[in-house]
Amino acid sequence: MKLCIQEMTASANLVIETVSVHDALAEIDNVEVAFVDVRDVLERIETGEIPGAVSVPRGFLEFCADPATAMHKPVFASGKQLILFCASGGRSTLAAKTLVDMGVPNVAHMAGGFGAWREAGGPIRPAH
After folding, report:
1. Average pLDDT score, the chain
2. Domain tally, the chain
3. pTM of the complete model
4. Is the CB of residue 25 less than 8 Å from the CB of residue 110?
5. Which residue range forms the structural domain that includes residue 108?
6. CATH code where residue 99 lies
7. Could you give the count of Cα atoms lying within 13 Å of 116 in the half-sphere of its Cβ?
8. What angle do CA 35, 39, 42 make, to 5 degrees?
9. Statement: residue 1 has pLDDT above 80
10. How many C-beta atoms surround the C-beta of residue 122 within 10 A?
11. Alpha carbon distance 26, 81 (integer Å)
12. Closest CA to 108 of 15, 6, 10
């Protein structure tokens, strides 16, 4: 193996912004911030979701971020601060790096992911 996941996330962390769960909690009602959930659908169904978060499973990220595709989600062209999260932070780190590489502005990832959000008492609703 030429590159392991630990090396990939370490490299990504050099070029992406990371926000703490406490800083992310302070932004939950900020209309200039969008939370982007990169977990898969089953995870969201099993554990719930952050109210108002946009669901973009990591496997579809590039297609949803690219305005030239039919799968494009407007949140990626909104100019809002995007805070990505997954279950614990690994996938959102790599997803944030991908978006940075694609030229999407204002991208960050939430350290600790949804697990840290839940532990910090952040609002959660059933997935739908």
Report:
1. 96
2. 1
3. 0.95
4. no
5. 15-119
6. 3.40.250.10
7. 17
8. 125
9. no
10. 18
11. 13
12. 15
**Residue 99 covered by a domain:** yes
Q: Which of 33, 25, 30, 51 is nearest to 111 (CA)?
A: 25
pLDDT of the residue at 80: 98
Whether 77 is in a domain gets the answer yes
Nearest to 44 by CA among 123, 114, 101: 114
Locate 98 and state its tokens.
């991908």
> Could you tell me if residue 4 is inside a domain?
no
pLDDT-based confidence at 128, cuts 50/70/90? Answer: confident
- What mean pLDDT comes out for the span 112-125? 98
Q: Give the Å distances, CA to CA, from 60 to 27, 51, 56, 118, 122.
A: 25, 21, 7, 25, 26
Instruction: Decide: helix, strand or coil at residue 33.
Output: strand
In a domain, 54, yes or no: yes
Residue 76, classed as helix, strand or coil, is helix
Q: In this predicted model, what pLDDT tens digit does every residue of 34-69 receive, in sequence order?
A: 999 999 999 999 999 999 999 999 999 999 999 999
Task: Lay out the sheet containing 17-19: strands in order across.
Answer: 17-19, 107-110, 81-85, 33-37, 54-55
**Tens-digit pLDDT profile for residues 61-75:** 999 999 999 999 999
